[in-house]
């Protein structure tokens, strides 16, 4: 589990940590418009049952501890948009995607699903003298003083984020550029996990970045350089029902790659166990790492009290910063 092994996390791995929340056994699924507004080159997609999250004190405390600045900005903007997020938003998704010009540039958009009273929201905008702009048939509104923008795709779906990210998302939705629906690899990963209340999928590059953070010093070994390009995607689910359960699957090109990654990760766990605190050692004992048919499998489970103690540990603090 990536709470234990790495020294530092990339943006992608930090985003994954940001949505460790306590949820009931409901599904967080994306509708057609929500999928279409996500650009094709997704590095990571996180989807969460937002209503359940808001109703859980433990979830909100944990989210406050690890939510990175990029997502804090989006969430703050959501709350300033005229929505009552406790009642209107059912599912909340964050999509990190690469821009068409390649390189290392990554944009993030938020997508909210629920039952939005558009007449009331638009009346509130009008009262506040909010000035909208148009991009083709899309109407875009500023979200308070946050600098973020929001566009309602229909009465149940809205997309929000920075100006450049929103434009790219709407270009994808309007068919000017490829969208998530044409990304067969990521769509396939989504179908495995989207019946869960919280889930995330990562593409090849996102997976490589996450695993480098998870492995820490072990990622400097020659074996990692050999296998990292043979990791194709990854997915995880997590819930806090009857304790904490975290399931991570890393899809690789063959059984040898998955077995090698399993060996590397087990070695990293043993190294950390030698130098870790008592609660960290317990967390490692509660983690199983294996491979099956080309997939690296990481399974972690603990009691609520054990996990609460882990949050206070120096190892956890070093991972989330």
From TrEMBL:
Q: Where is the signal peptide?
A: 1-27
Sorted keywords for this record are: Signal
Give the superkingdom in one word.
Answer: Bacteria
Protein name stated in the entry: DUF3352 domain-containing protein
